[in-house]
Specification:
Helices cover 42% and strands 14% of the residues. The protein is of the alpha/beta class.
């Protein structure tokens, strides 16, 4: 079969939106648990092609699209016959990272292409037979390695895989899914939001590299691991959504993990805060001691009924343990029911660590802890220089305990390799829930150091900073990178002519930056933070006498013309004129 990318229906997003506004759409049920009912043996997985493969292949369900495509096609068609509007490709583990366990890394593109093609044929067949559109979701699983959790109990900074390796693995998978005929890309069962951000980064990169292909919509579905309502890496569902909210998403939801009866408060929360369409496809209850699922179709329907009747979802389906009968009854449940209406979500600045930070009009000042800065804390600098990261971590923890709602991290020093130190420290503090609950501010004068930090941060952080100092081209390039990583951004009042000191120039540079960010790069206004350059006072120099007034006037002008942006200022800068007067400096 040909494996060259082909053109896809360009209006699929609009078609899905129209249908989801009209009725609740139905996803299929569990693929893996359904395959288990076939009781396949090693020889079935191998087929003729892999008869002499040196590794065991039983359990590699994704390989069946090549060795037993008739089984996968039959499963797709039976779900379509049960009423599914959307069927998912059998590609949960079709990445080079996961297929490495079987020695099949080189077949990843072929597997994804074949899986999408099988799905496409089945969907097209039932679309024609029933005169009802059916869609193909290209399934992108979470990987068997995580960017946020250390595999070592003795070193919290170690990771088993890098950001770049994850992005490359997802790019290869996406290429096959798109070429095979997917209608939507589904990043599913997300237990590590950083892995998910890498998948979204890869999706965005893929479309940038293939501008002639019609861009497909994206769907993200997270998973929570227990009754705490958090991902495996510790994020609340609100923080999880905030971490991925930068992406152009059609659908956001939850799947797997718990049964429907345990998922209600979390899918309700997703429904409240997401301006996108929402989905839920739970397991058939919790697994039993043998790994099976005991929830009957009738029990499943009773547990999931509130999601439909109370308007939590636009798409509903089943995950592990659900069968054709579960989907058939679900089809009857949703018939005639009103789908969820998209809420109007306030345009607040939202950031996240393990928990969500929402900056509302009534929030007031947000204190950014700046002691994790080698230039701002002698104790922190000494700890980093001596490789005493335990003490450096204590500095971070103390700031959160003292009321900091964000932590600024800056490791710029001529005696430090910041490219190594920044990711090392972020990985370390990301494993301490007392620190990691707040968003990070990744701070460096070197943009490659900022990028190194962004690759390690599962939450929605802030980049400090970018400016027009090196011209518009560089500014746009850096801003696009920040947006692709999903961070908010601090913009300094600098341009090609230097630092702004008076209100008129501060406002002029801020407005120019704002227009570029919102009109060219695509930033939301509330994700932009203007730094108006708080400058020194009481230096005795006449040209400095009005600095404080100029700052306040610039803030007024910015808020007048750009009301949704936030304003930051390094208040400690005013202390530079008081070196040696520690009593006064501490009072300020």
């Amino acid at each position: 079969m040909s494996t060259e990318p082909r053109g896809l229906v360009s209006n699929v997003g609009a078609r899905l939106r129209a249908l989801m506004d009209e009725r609740i759409l139905l996803l299929d049920g569990g693929m893996g648990s359904t395959i288990q009912t076939y009781r396949l043996q090693e020889s079935d997985f191998r087929g003729d092609r892999f008869r002499d493969h040196p590794k065991d292949l039983k359990g590699d369900n994704d390989l069946l699209v090549l060795t037993a495509p008739h089984i996968i096609s039959e499963i797709h068609e039976r779900y379509l016959a049960a009423g599914s509007d959307i069927i998912e490709t059998n590609t949960f583990n079709s990445t080079s990272v996961s297929q490495a366990d079987y020695g099949l890394e080189d077949l990843v593109y072929e597997m994804n292409f074949a899986a999408a093609t099988l799905c496409r044929r089945a969907a097209d067949k039932y679309s024609a037979e029933t005169n009802t559109p059916r869609f193909v979701a290209g399934g992108i699983g979470p990987l068997n390695k995580t960017l946020s959790i250390s595999p070592s109990v003795s070193d919290a900074s170690i990771r088993s895989i890098t950001w770049d390796e994850v992005v490359d693995a997802y790019l290869e998978q996406i290429r096959g899914l798109v070429a095979g005929g997917s209608d939507i890309l589904l990043v599913e069962t997300v237990f590590d939001p950083l892995n998910c951000k890498a998948a979204l980064y890869a999706i965005d990169l893929f479309w940038e590299r293939n501008p002639t292909l019609p861009r497909l919509p994206t769907w993200v579905s997270g998973t929570i691991t227990d009754d705490s309502g958090r991902t495996l890496t510790g994020q609340t569902v609100e923080a999880f959504y905030t971490s991925i909210s930068h992406a152009d998403l059609l659908i956001v939801g939850l799947n797997c993990a718990l049964g429907a009866d345990k998922m209600r408060p979390y899918i309700e929360k997703i429904s409240e805060i997401c301006p996108t369409y929402t989905s839920c496809y739970p397991n058939a209850g919790l697994p039993n001691a043998l790994g099976g699922y005991d929830e009957t179709p009738e029990q499943f329907i009773q547990n999931i009924k509130p999601f439909v009747y109370e308007g939590f979802v636009n798409v509903i389906g089943g995950c592990c343990g659900t069968s054709f009968d579960h989907i058939r009854l679900l089809k009857e449940l949703v018939k005639g029911q009103t789908p969820r209406r998209l809420p109007v979500v306030p345009q607040y600045t939202c950031l996240s660590g393990l928990e969500r930070l929402v900056i509302r009009p009534e929030t007031g000042f947000c204190n950014i802890g700046e002691r994790c800065n080698v230039s701002g804390s002698r104790l922190f600098c000494k700890s980093i220089m001596e490789n005493n990261y335990a003490e450096a971590l204590r500095t971070a923890r103390q700031q959160v305990e003292a009321g900091a709602v964000l932590i600024d991290i800056n490791l710029d020093d001529g005696m430090l390799d910041a490219m190594t130190a920044m990711p090392h420290f972020i990985k370390l503090i990301s494993t301490d829930p007392d620190v990691a609950k707040v968003p990070f501010v990744i701070d460096s004068s070197k943009f490659d150091v900022i990028v190194a930090g962004l690759k390690c941060t599962q939450g929605r952080c802030v980049v400090n900073s970018i400016s027009l100092k090196d011209g518009e081209e560089k500014f746009i390039q850096n801003a696009r990178t920040v947006k692709r990583f999903g961070a908010a951004v601090i913009v300094m009042a600098f341009d090609e002519n230097g630092q702004a000191t008076d209100a008129r120039r501060k406002h002029e540079i801020s407005l120019r930056s704002y227009n570029i960010l919102t009109q060219v790069v695509g930033f939301q206004p509330q994700d932009i933070i203007m730094d108006m350059n708080i400058l020194t006072i009481a230096t005795g120099l006449e040209e400095h006498d009005n600095y404080a007034v100029e700052f306040f006037e610039a803030c007024r002008l910015v808020k007048r013309d750009m009301p949704l942006v936030k304003i930051s200022g390094g208040v400690s800068n005013v202390l530079f004129a008081f070196r040696g007067l520690n009593v006064g400096r501490e009072a300020m």
